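B., you asked whether I could sanity-check this one before it goes into the benchmark set. Here's the sequence:
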Amino acid sequence: MKELTLKYGMNPNMKKARIFMQKGELPIEVLNGRPGFINFLDAFNSWQLVKELKEATGLPAAASFKHVSPAGAAVAVPMDDVLKKIYYVDDLKLSPLATAYARARGADRMSSYGDFVALSEICDAETATMLAREVSDGVIAPGYTDAALAILKTKRKGTYNIVKIDPNYVPELVEHKDVFGITFEQDRNNAKIDANLLNNIPTKNKQIPADAVRDLLISLIVLKYTQSNSVCYVKGGQAIGIGAGQQSRVHCTRLAGNKADNWWLRQNPKVLSLPFKDDIRRPDRDNTIDVYISDDWDDVLREGTWQQFFTTKPEPLTREEKKAWLKQLKGVALGSDAFFPFGDNIERAHRSGVEYIAQAGGSIRDDNVIETCDKYNIAMAMTGLRLFHH
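And here's what the prediction gave me:
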C-alpha cells in the first residue's frame, strides 16, 4: 500500500488528507480503527522515540504522546509499591513492556489522558490489559500477540486505533515539509544519542553513575522528539517532567520542574491515604489530586466541593509539609535540547532534586551556568549537540 486516505486533516475543515510514500510501500498496517492526521503524527514521532530508547538502553520502552510531544516516556525499570499505587497498576500483572508503559503513562496522567501510545516491543496481553482501561486514542507497535489484539479490539466499542509498524523500516535521509505552499527540505536528524555525548564534563563534580547516564540518555532522546524549546527531568528510567514548546528556556525548566514536583508530591503519605469515594473514576482522582497538592485546595475547602470526591474531609498538605517533602527528591537527571543561557535554569532545576545535567553548551554565559552547577555540586555534561524539533 502506497497511500492511505484519512478522514480529514489536522482540523475537520481540512477535508482532503492522506499519508503516502514517494517511494516504496507504507511501513504500517492499520489493524483496527481509523487513525487520523494527528494520530499518525503522534504515532510516527513516538515510534522513533521508543525505538531509540530501546537501542540506547537495551530495555523495552514506551511513550505516551499528545499533540506531537511526549507526555511521558520510560524504559522497563521495576517499580516499588508506591509507584504501582499512584499509577493505578497495583492490581495488575506487569510484564517488562507493561512496566514501561505504566511509567510513561503515570508520570503526568493529566497530560496523558487521551494519548497515542508507542511500544518498542510486540504488545503482550499484560500491556493490552492496562491500555484497555485507560482513556487512549491508539497504539503503535511492531506487532501484537493474538491475546493482546483481541483485548484491544474491544476498546472504544471496537474503534480503538491499532497500528502495526515494520521495525526494520528505514526512512529516506532527506525529508520534506510544506508550509504556506513552500517546501522545506533537510537531512533527517540521525544524530546518535549514546554515552559518548556525556564525556565533556566541565563542572567540578564529574561523577555520573550508570543509572544517571541511563537517565540522561533518556532525557536527550525524549527531547529529540519534543516540540522545542524543551527540557526533560528523568528519574528511575522514566521522564517525570517535560516542558515543551516554550519560547523561554527557563519557562521550560519551570514547567517541567513543576510537573516533576507534582510527580513526587503524589507519593506523599497524605496523598496516598486520601479518602476517595469508591465510585470516583481515575481521571477524576488525578484531577482532584492535582488540586489537592496545589494552592487551590484552600478554595475547595471553603467552597465545600471536596464532598463530591471524599468520604471524609481530607487533612490539608501544608506548604511547609510540601517544602519538606520536596527536599527529599534527589538524584534527578535533566536534559535540555539546547544550551542554558543563564544560571537561573540551574537554580530552578536544583529545587526539583536535579543532580545531573546534559545540555548542548555554547552559550556566552557558559561560565555562569557552570559556576551555578558547582554551587550545588551538580555534574553537568556539555554534549555539543542541539536537539531542536519543530
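One thing to flag: The CA atoms of residues 107 and 263 lie 6 Å apart. Otherwise nothing jumped out at me.
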